[in-house]
Amino acid sequence: MKLERALSVLTLLSVVTTAGIIITLIGESAGFFAEISPLRLLEAEWRPFLVPHAFGVAPLLFGTLAVTCIAACVAFPLGLLAAIYLAELGPASARAVLKPMLELLAGVPSVVLGYVALRYFTPTLHLQPFNIVSAGIAVGLMLLPTFATLCDDAIYAVPQGVRESAYALGADQLRTLFAVVLPAARSGLVAAVLLSVSRAVGETMIVAIAAGASPQTVAGFMAQMTLGDVSFGTLEHRTLFMLGLLLFVITCALNITAHRLVRQAVSQ
């Protein structure tokens, strides 16, 4: 009973915390839109702290999308190959050792990956000190363990009878994998993609360290501006909350879609 009560209190605490965050974001964003028309978010430039002001979020969204695409090119192929090896091709002993190690890599702080990108990736690739490529690669490495683990769980959850039916029809292991197992795990794999993308969209420290101010992402801009002198209650202050609400809506939509796909995969 004590354990159940403790879990209930923790659950209630998480709900109250989330509700408080949402109420704060909406309240501060309402103050922003009371001064600035929502149509101004469609402007071509993002210049909220300079006169004349410009509030077009397209440059920030483009920077976020660029980092996410680079990270996806790094994490998704490598993560899927790792998951296929762990779930299908590798021996059980390798899975027992490698999967816990892979899950431990997910705990590497993002600030460490940011400095790794700045110190090693940028000089190796002969790029400018602050660039989007190194940031995207580092974000991809951050996503890799989580994406590989989610894909491995989705592939491993495919019933063994599905594989045996394909073998009975004369299919070899690789044909069974690509023609039967992966399509059967499609919902789980898509959910892994969406969850990884939502994490990449909200990544802050790697982008702030490795990419600097150009190009800007939504989360990176918020991190840089909170280090400056932004007075409470000003338009600049409310602008940060508006961006926070935008980021929350994007990641929430991706997470909800991913969880629906996971439930669909479980029901199947």
Name the CATH architecture of the largest domain.
Orthogonal Bundle
Which whole number gives the mean pLDDT? 84
Distance between the termini: 34 Å
Q: Structural class of the helices, strands and pairings? A: mainly alpha
* β-strand number: 2
Query: Would you give the CATH topology of the largest domain?
Result: MetI-like fold
Number of helices: 11
Widest sheet, order of strands: 1-2
Task: Tell me the series of helices and strands, N- to C-terminal.
Answer: HEEHHHHHHHHHH
**Low-confidence segments:** none
Task: Walk me through this protein's architecture.
- This protein is an all-alpha fold.
- The protein has two domains: 2-47; 57-267, MetI-like (MetI-like fold), CATH 1.10.3720.10.
- 77% of the residues lie in helices and 1% in strands.
- It has helices spanning 2-35, 58-89, 92-105, 110-125, 132-156, 160-168, 173-184, 186-201, 205-210, 218-226, 235-267, and strands at 46-47, 54-55.
- The chain has a two-stranded antiparallel sheet.
- A hairpin with a 6-residue loop joins β1 and β2.
- α4 (110-125) crosses α5 (132-156) and α5 (132-156) runs antiparallel to α8 (186-201).
- The chain is globular.
- The chain starts with a helix and ends with a helix.
- The mean pLDDT is 84.
